[in-house]
């Protein structure tokens, strides 16, 4: 696997360096289940993954992908709900990591996307749910109107997080054509 090339590759390298067996993770946008399965593999049988998506087709795709890869539901909770409601399922300071892969469901209706309002609420709640030393990964795609709104909001919001509580890093491919995705990584101190 290439380290660079796109933010998803960089995300995977960073997550592999952070997660280990027994950890608890949030996949705030399960989509087709690729990230969910990747996270489950890293946390192992003793870890736990919460996977959210508000589209039932995404939850079904994630369940199917996990089942075909031999993942047992004992360490996975699939939640068909907005990630903005994550505090109804996850307690504060219990997550070792959280992942937001924003945008639309690959292969799905491109008119159905994450929205800045729900993303903003979910990010706030995810930051509260992180343990000290926990990492929050946000992949944002500004190539569509909702993505532009999310990017603008997140750039302002994340740059204003208090330095005494959080470290925030941006991964941005500045020499790629079009509007390549951006990733922010936030560490809770």
Automatic annotation (TrEMBL):
Annotated InterPro entries: MnmM_MeTrfase, SAM-dependent_MTases_sf
Record carries keyword Methyltransferase: yes
Name of the molecule in the record: Class I SAM-dependent methyltransferase
GO molecular function (one): methyltransferase activity
One Pfam short name: rRNA_methylase
This protein's UniProt keywords: Methyltransferase, Transferase
CDD domains for this protein: AdoMet_MTases
Organism domain of life: Bacteria
BP term (GO), one: methylation
């Amino acid at each position: 696997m290439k380290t660079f090339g796109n933010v998803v590759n960089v995300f995977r390298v960073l997550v592999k360096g952070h997660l280990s067996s027994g950890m608890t993770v949030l996949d705030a946008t399960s989509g087709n289940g690729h990230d969910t399965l990747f996270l489950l593999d890293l946390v192992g049988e003793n870890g736990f993954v919460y996977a959210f998506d508000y589209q039932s087709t995404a939850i079904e795709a994630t369940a199917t992908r996990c089942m075909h890869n031999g993942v047992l539901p004992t360490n996975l909770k699939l939640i068909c709900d907005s990630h903005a409601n994550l505090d109804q399922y996850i307690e504060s300071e219990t997550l070792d990591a959280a992942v937001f892969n924003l945008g639309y469901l690959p292969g799905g209706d491109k008119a159905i996307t994450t929205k800045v309002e729900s993303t903003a609420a979910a990010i706030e709640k995810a930051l509260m749910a992180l343990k000290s030393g926990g990492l929050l990964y946000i992949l944002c795609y500004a190539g569509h109107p909702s993505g532009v709104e999310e990017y603008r909001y997140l750039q302002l919001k994340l740059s204003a997080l208090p330095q005494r509580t959080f470290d925030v890093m941006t991964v941005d491919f500045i020499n790629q054509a079009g509007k390549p995705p951006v990733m922010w990584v936030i560490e809770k101190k």
